[in-house]
Amino acid sequence: ELDLSVLFSPKNRPRKHREIVKFPAVTRDIALLLPVNVGHDVIEKAILSAREKLLERVELFDVFVDAAGEKVPVGQRSMAYSLTYRASDRTLTAEEVTQAHSRVKKTLQDRLRNVAEVEFRE
Length: 122
Hints:
The chain is of the alpha+beta class. Helix content is 26%, strand content 27%. Helix 2 crosses helix 3.
């Protein structure tokens, strides 16, 4: 038995509304080859530290470790991310997305320099 008045009470469920975005998003994938001790939280923080205004979402979609060391060196792993770029007021050009993506990559290299040597696989 459910008491729907409690479940849907405004005080129990703050509502956030935002306008539906009219312009398309552009997604670029990036894969990083890193030591296994570098976690997702470190990578995500480094990406977000770029404070890229066009970056809407960061999503980890693949982690690959090769125990045999044939495709990825032993002690390292490949972490692949999908980065979504969008402007709320216009359709982005390929050049705008490329520049934003380059800034994010540069920030990743700078932020992770002390942690590991970063190799991009795109």
